[in-house]
Amino acid sequence: MPVELAPADLAPARPGAKLHFLHVGKTGGTAIKRAMRDGGVRRTPYGRLVLHRHRFTLRDVPEDDFIVFCVRDPVARFASGFYSRRDKGRPRHDVEWSPAEAKVFAAFATPEQLAGALAGDDPEQRELAEFAMRHVRHLSLQRRIVGPVPELRRRLDHVVFIGRQETLDADWKRLKAVLEIDRDLALPTDPVEAHRRTTPERPDFDEVQLAALRDWYARDYRLLRFCEAVRAARGQTGTRLGRLRSRLPMPRQSRG
Description:
With about 260 residues, the protein is α/β, with parallel strands linked by helices.
């Protein structure tokens, strides 16, 4: 997906601007927010840092404020989100199921079962599977938080950085550089603090289940491709850290 974007195409940082971290569930946001809180990160070149919960979205960000967020492969995020809510967020959290989640997890014990019902011919099971995709926390579309591609494209001059859960450690180094954060500030290594499962399960989807999930998340895959194009255009992927600082977009100073 072509992205016409120069490395410095960010809007000026106006007085009083804020930098909002949009937290897309199961994309590494808990680890980043914990590191920033522990490091006392408050000010950035883009204004005061504001760390948000899952319900705060791109549409909630004032037009003159700046944005940081992370994304993830939708199928991998689906599996991680399923396990997390099945276990009520433990061990870091203990968030009771909503009535909708209780209904879902009474029917589906594994992500494979849910994906199978989504792909199946039984209309009742498929309807329940679609209900699950809409009502279980962390299974919803990532675009719900960071916006559909047209809206995100419109606001790219205020998007400071897009990270990937799959390259979180490298992206954290890049993010620290662009936000002028202490280079020694580390992400939490304890899986509980980082909200990672201590004994991760690995789903074994068959091709039919994968196809159903990819079809369901088609809009998120379009978003992911766009985000990867932006990252590449800005030199935020595959860049040697020694050359990173001169290539990352920094805010132009506002005049007057």
